[in-house]
Amino acid sequence: MDIKDVGESNLIQRIADTYRPSHSSIIVGIGDDAAALSVSSQTVLLTTCDLLVEDVHFDLSFTDSYYLGRKALAVNLSDIAAMGGTARYFLVSLALPPHLSLSFVDDLYRGMMELADECHTQLVGGDTNASPSTLMIAITVLGEAHPDNLLKRNGAQAGDSIFVTGTLGDAALGLLLLQNGPPHTAPSTVHTLIARHRSPLPRLTEGKKLADNHLASAMIDISDGLLTDLRRILTASNKGATVFLSQLPHSKDFEQNHLYPEKTKIDCALAGGEDYELLFTAHPSKEKEILRSSTTGDAPITKIGEVNDSQELVVLDHDQKPYPVSHLGYDHFLSTR
Are 131 and 269 part of one and the same domain? Predict the structure, then answer.
């Protein structure tokens, strides 16, 4: 059996089942957004790492090194946000092909460091190596959380509401525009959607607020698509869910873009991925406080569905009929982005 026959989630589960950690200091190991390690009665160390590979995660014809640097750090910071933590330090490892210029590397770090300053995170080390032809970027972020506030994927309960921060589908639609070539007279909405793909914003403030106020029961960030990442919460929690298409939040730029049919746009919102918004569940009694708190933050929060005991994931259209979903989202081994 080959890796492509298994898929990313099943491969990770296979590794986790085979090498399940047993040390008492390991609160969360393989299979969540970040590892959580107990270092004191008041502090949990959060550790996450992501590898970005040229022509798999990014195409240098679609982005420059400055935005690539910002995005490489952002996707890691988003994992800390999904655990309700605070990002403190990061390390950068690069495999660099010899044809890259020094100015490329300088701009790559400039993008990372500008986002790091915005998120109050410090660069503390890393590694550099040569690569025959392909650029690879591996970033490790170290963060912290209070043990009582830590958020995981496995806490969803039947009856919980499902929420997302921000809007859905912008990044995937922006990637489509880049791949197909935006029109020469592209409206400003096109450039905004492309910017959402090139430079996502990690929701660190929102994640910490949800955790510190004990508002969420389970949380994940949307990297591989709304449905794929919701499925991860449901699998970890042994639950099912209903998502309402009519309640999915979209930006004005997304709604006003008419270069693609409506079904394509819906697929971007449901399965496109790379929004790096927070997807979380919460008890209905928390709903008013969640929605009230969203009015004071940078990202609005929207209720999009409900958790149930069915162990099935169903999407209902505007007429409350099942919406045919062609795929749940991105898988590194089963699909191409």
Answer: no
